[in-house]
C-alpha cells in the first residue's frame, strides 16, 4: 500500500543530542548526574551502586558524579577521561548525552562527543570564572558549529547565589565569544550539588527569570539544520531487484520527493526520482535523517560513495583540493607529505597532505588547518553550511586507524 509522508518524521524533532564540557573540578559530572537523577532517569540498581561506593568513601550523600564517571581510572582519579554516553527521556523529548572530558589532553574526546551534538553545555565554576579551558571548549564548540551553546555557571551556592557573580562571568565570557567565533549562547546559573536550576527552578535565585536547564533542553529547536539544508543522499549500497536498481542509504540533509530532478556526483549525470521506499513502504517524500532507498528513471552507473543531490543552484562543490580546520586525534603525528585515506560520508579516496597551516606536524589534540590533494573528486559542502557533508576523517592506510577529524572550509 502506498503511503505519503506529509510531515517530517518525529525522529528529527524530538531527540536532542547534546554534549557537556568543563574544566577540571567545575562539577560537570555532578551536573550530569543531577540531571539524570532529578529527571528520574536512573535505575534503582544504578543508584544503589552509587550509594554503596559513596558510603565506602565516608560520604553521607550519594556522589552523583559516579553516574557518569564509570571507568575505574576515572573514579580513582576523580576526573572524566572517556566520553560517556547516556540516554534518557522526558515526556517532551528524548536525549542522547555525551559527557566529555575537561583536561586539555583529552580535547580529541570533546571533539568526538560534540561532533554530532546540536547543543553544548559549557560549565564554569562560579568561584573561578572563565579559565583557559573554558575558552578552549568554546573554541571547539565554535569550530564544530554546534548550533546551540549553554554557559552553565555552576556552584552558585558557594558564592552565596549572588547575581553580581553570575553577571561578571557572563560578561567575561561574552567578551571572548566573538573572537572565538561563537555568535550566541544562553547563560543559566546552577548548583549541581544542591539541584538549583538543573531540573527544578531554584528558590535561591529569584533574580534569574529564565528556565531551568532541563526546561531549556526540552524547548530548544532541534533538527532544523538537517531538515532545511539542501538534499544530500550519499549512496551506501546498491540493491538490484527484478532488473531495477535501488540506491540505499541515509538521507543526511534536506528532502527528496518523487519527481525531483537529481544530480549524481562526481559523474555529474542527471535523472529523475521515480520511487522512494522508507522502511519497505512506498513514499512520496523522505526527510533527513531517514534511511531510504531511491529508484531513478535511468539505469545509471551509480555505486557506493556517489552522492545524489536535488536541484542545481545549491549543489556541493566538486573538488580535489580540500582546505579544512582539523583536530588531530591520533598518537601518530600528521606531517606534510603524508599519504592518507580521506573518508567523506560513504566515499573513501586517497589523499596527500600538502600544507599544515605553516606547521611541520600536528600532534595529539592539536587544532589546526590543513590543505589536502585527493586522488579523486569529492562532492563537498562548506562545514559552516552543512556539518554532515562538510566533515571528514583522515585514516592511516596502513592499519585503518583514525588520524584526524576535518571540517571543510570552502570559502
Which characteristics define this entry?
24 strands; alpha+beta; 411 residues; 19% helix; six-stranded mixed β-sheet; eight-stranded antiparallel β-sheet
Give the topology.
Blueprint: E1 15-22, H1 28-38, H2 44-56, H3 72-77, E2 84-90, E3 93-99, H4 107-114, E4 119-125, H5 132-143, E5 148-154, H6 163-180, E6 186-189, H7 213-219, H8 224-228, E7 232-234, E8 237-241, E9 244-250, E10 255-257, E11 261-265, E12 270-278, E13 281-283, E14 285-287, E15 291-296, E16 307-310, E17 317-328, E18 334-335, E19 339-344, E20 347-355, E21 361-362, E22 367-380, E23 391-395, E24 402-408
Parallel strand pairs: 1-3, 1-4, 4-5, 5-6
Antiparallel strand pairs: 2-3, 7-16, 8-9, 9-15, 10-14, 11-12, 11-16, 12-13, 12-15, 17-22, 17-24, 18-21, 19-20, 19-23, 20-22, 23-24
Question: How would you sum up this structure, described in words?
Answer:
- The chain is an alpha+beta fold.
- It contains eight helices and 24 strands.
- The protein has helices at 28-38, 44-56, 72-77, 107-114, 132-143, 163-180, 213-219, 224-228; strands at residues 15-22, 84-90, 93-99, 119-125, 148-154, 186-189, 232-234, 237-241, 244-250, 255-257, 261-265, 270-278, 281-283, 285-287, 291-296, 307-310, 317-328, 334-335, 339-344, 347-355, 361-362, 367-380, 391-395, 402-408.
- The strands form five sheets. Strands 7, 8, 9, 11, 12, 13, 15 and 16 form an eight-stranded antiparallel β-sheet that branches. Strands 2-3-1-4-5-6 form a six-stranded mixed β-sheet, sandwiched between helices.
- A hairpin with a 2-residue loop joins β12 and β13 (281-283).
- α5 (132-143) packs across α6.
Amino acid at each position: 500500500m502506498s503511503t505519503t509522508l506529509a510531515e517530517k518524521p518525529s525522529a528529527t524533532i524530538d531527540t536532542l543530542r547534546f554534549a557537556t564540557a568543563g574544566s577540571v573540578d567545575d562539577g560537570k559530572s555532578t551536573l550530569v548526574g543531577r540531571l539524570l537523577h532529578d529527571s528520574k532517569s536512573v535505575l534503582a540498581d544504578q543508584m544503589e551502586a552509587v550509594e554503596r561506593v559513596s558510603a565506602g568513601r565516608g560520604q553521607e550523600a550519594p556522589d552523583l558524579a559516579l553516574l557518569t564517571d564509570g571507568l575505574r581510572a576515572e573514579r580513582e582519579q576523580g576526573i572524566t577521561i572517556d566520553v560517556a554516553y547516556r540516554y534518557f527521556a522526558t515526556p517532551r523529548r528524548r536525549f542522547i548525552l555525551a559527557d566529555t572530558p575537561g583536561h586539555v589532553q583529552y580535547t580529541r574526546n570533546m571533539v568526538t562527543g560534540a561532533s554530532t551534538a546540536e547543543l553544548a553545555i559549557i560549565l564554569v565554576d562560579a568561584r573561578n570564572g572563565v579559565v583557559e579551558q573554558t575558552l578552549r571548549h568554546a573554541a571547539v564548540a565554535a569550530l564544530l558549529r554546534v548550533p546551540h551553546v549553554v554557559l552553565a555557571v555552576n556552584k552558585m551556592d558557594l558564592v552565596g547565589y549572588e547575581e553580581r557573580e553570575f553577571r561578571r562571568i557572563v560578561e567575561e565570557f561574552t567578551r571572548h565569544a566573538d573572537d572565538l567565533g561563537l555568535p550566541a549562547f544562553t547563560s543559566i546559573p546552577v548548583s549541581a550539588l544542591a539541584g538549583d536550576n538543573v531540573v527544578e527552578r531554584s528558590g535561591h535565585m529569584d533574580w534569574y527569570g529564565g528556565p531551568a536547564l532541563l526546561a531549556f533542553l526540552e524547548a530548544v529547536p532541534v533538527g532544523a539544520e538537517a531538515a532545511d539544508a539542501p538534499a544530500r543522499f550519499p549512496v551506501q549500497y546498491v540493491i538490484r531487484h527484478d532488473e531495477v536498481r535501488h540506491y540505499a542509504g541515509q538521507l543526511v540533509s534536506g528532502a527528496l520527493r518523487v519527481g525531483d530532478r537529481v544530480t549524481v556526483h562526481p559523474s555529474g549525470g542527471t535523472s529523475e526520482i521515480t520511487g522512494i521506499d522508507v522502511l519497505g513502504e512506498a513514499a512520496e517524500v523522505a526527510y533527513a535523517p531517514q534511511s531510504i532507498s531511491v529508484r531513478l528513471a535511468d539505469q545509471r552507473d551509480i555505486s557506493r560513495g556517489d552522492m545524489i543531490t536535488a536541484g542545481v543552484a545549491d549543489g556541493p562543490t566538486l573538488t580535489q583540493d580540500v582546505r579544512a580546520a582539523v583536530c588531530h586525534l591520533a598518537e601518530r603525528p600528521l606531517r606534510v607529505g603524508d599519504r592518507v585515506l580521506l573518508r567523506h560520508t560513504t566515499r573513501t579516496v586517497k589523499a596527500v597532505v600538502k600544507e599544515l597551516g605553516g606547521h611541520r606536524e600536528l600532534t595529539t589534540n592539536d587544532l589546526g588547518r590543513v590543505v589536502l590533494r585527493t586522488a579523486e573528486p569529492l562532492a563537498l559542502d562548506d562545514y559552516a553550511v552543512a556539518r554532515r557533508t562538510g566533515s571528514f576523517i583522515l585514516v592511516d592506510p596502513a592499519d585503518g586507524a583514525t588520524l584526524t577529524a576535518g571540517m571543510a572550509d570552502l570559502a
